[in-house]
Amino acid sequence: MRTPPTREQWLLDGEMNGHTSQEVMQYWSWASDFEDWQAARRRQPGFVLPQVGPWWRGWKWLPRI
Fold first, then answer.
1. How far is CA 6 from the centre of its chain?
2. Residue 5 to residues 10, 21, 39: CA-CA distances in angstroms?
3. Please, which of 5, 15, 17, 42 could form a disulfide with 9 given CB 3.0 to 4.6 Å?
4. Is the pTM of this model over 0.70?
């Protein structure tokens, strides 16, 4: 799944170009879906997601790098 822009990037783009109501709703839906996708992936053993820690890899807990 493609990562949505950060809130700061979204706000800056809104200041520069403006956003319609529909674009705002689509952005928040996209961001929410992305968070749900990340949470579902974190529950799967063996999956390593760089921005969360501690990581579960194989049978060992690894410290956050």
1. 9
2. 6, 17, 18
3. 5
4. no
